[in-house]
Amino acid sequence: MELIASTATPPTRGCKAKGCGTNDDGLAGLPASVREQVQNHPCFSEKAHHHFARMHVAVAPACNIQCHYCNRKYDCSNESRPGVVSEVLTPDQAIRKVKAVAAAIPQMTVLGIAGPGDPLANPERTFETFRRLSEETPDIKLCVSTNGLRLPEFADEIARYNIQHVTITINCLDPEIGARIYPWIFWNHRRIRGVKAAKILIRNQLKGLEMLVERGVLVKVNSVMIPGVNDHHLAEVSRAVKERGAFLHNVMPLIAEAEHGTFYGVTGQRAPSNAELHALQESCSDSMSMMRHCRQCRADAVGMLGEDRGQEFTLDKIASQEIDYPTAMARRQRVQRAILDSLAEATPPLAAKPPPEALIAVASKGGQVVDEHFGHARHFSIYRVSAGRRAFVERRAVALYCSGASDCPEEEERLEGHLGALADCNGVLCSRIGIGPWQQLERAGIEPSSSYALEPIDQALDRFYQDLLEQGKLTTSHPQQATA
Amino acid sequence: MSFSISDRCVNCYACLDLCPSNAISQGVSQFHIDSLRCTECAGHFADPQCASICPVEGALLDGEGQALHPPGSLTGIPPTLRVVAMEGQPAASLLP
Hints:
The complex is a heterodimer.
Chain A: H1 32-38, E1 53-56, E2 65-66, H2 91-104, E3 108-113, H3 123-136, E4 141-146, H4 151-160, E5 163-169, H5 175-178, E6 184-187, E7 190-193, H6 194-214, E8 218-225, H7 234-243, E9 248-253, H8 263-266, H9 274-285, E10 302-303, H10 315-318, H11 325-346, E11 358-362, E12 379-386, E13 389-397, H12 411-414, H13 416-421, E14 427-429, H14 435-443, E15 447-449, H15 457-470, H16 479-483
Chain B: E1 4-5, H1 14-18, E2 24-26, E3 31-33, H2 49-53, E4 60-61, H3 79-87
């Protein structure tokens, strides 16, 4: 299966495509002033997300719309999807938490309010938090995510608190489609349903987007890809939001597990495959800078993207802490300056002074040793490795392609999901692998290895990293650039 | 008459922010309506505000103790699928 429809010129893929790439930072098509603004924002700059951290404070529990992918029972600590939090904070608690995190994690540059409801449906709590942060922690960038229903009303206030970035979730422009995503909204003191509700919501989202752009606020648009509902419509959304001045579009896959109890989850609405998601992102990238490293964080996430250190900063743990913020701010400045300097040094054309980083996927049954067959792996653990350093990034699930069944799809097609899930990796470690997948991985610029089967993961990562380095396969940090 | 809040409430504050009579407060485990203050928004709004924004079916009860939002009325999830949802089983097979 081809990722995108064939064209006269070779299709752009991965980091060659507009708006992606760890080297070009995904924002290549944007004006320098915008790149400057987002260079230390982990959610907007793909390069920054390896080095800078973010946090969300859950001060906004109320919502004014219902989405079919959301369940408002949001106190489950075992879930890691947006809209889920463990404890709702008052603005005062939020300020304490932000200061505690800022002091402990000096590379935390960004504070967002993203729920678990809609921040603009909680205007007092949200803006009280922003107002105090803009005064007490002036070195932290402020962000807000919203469904957009009340954006026109609050655009001026957002601009006032120096909130540089706003994310609006826009899933469709067509109210008929909207009616299949949003069962109701609360508007003008009434609950409104169906197409009428979607029409009001979409109108306000687009108007709000325009108003923010007029006021110099950077706007990113999030869309949830829902197969059979809005997937064929999102390229049009991309064009429309770009026309109105959004600088980045983030198409995210629907999360719809039955146990989450959402409408889509319990009615069996499927999520898109990796391949479908990537194909859609490609088609949208013709009109718009796309974001591809989103981790769909919880509304109380803390730390680097893909990690959550929220448990280190629960209310009981921060209650007794007294933070000397001016001292913390000075340290933060030094740390962040050093990161930006090293990023500037590492920038092409002739990088390679600091040891290059590799992203390595590991197939492992128990997470201790490299003991899983590539074709049997249901997930891969992704590690970021450089000389002598390894950091776990995340686990990525893949569909089982090798079931031993005779109705196996064509090989090319079977591996599409794996290739998509591992596209940004330099290599993959497994205990065994078939020759077909081996060749396909190599063609995609991903180096497979079963040489370190049954070795402890840390040791295997170090040795494999050395191999890749010595073979000159880490001169660029992204495989698809090296081979395309 | 006065509304009341059941133990299905998820403490989202939406009703508290809207109540024109200041009848709603945060209790120990969930929000609570002061029956002496609640007017069901008579004289303020055409629709009771808490009932217009509450996202949880069965969380708000009318003066007779009946759910203002019965199963399926807000989420669109058919009541037949609710049990399945609770047990965490995919329900695709139940769909047409």
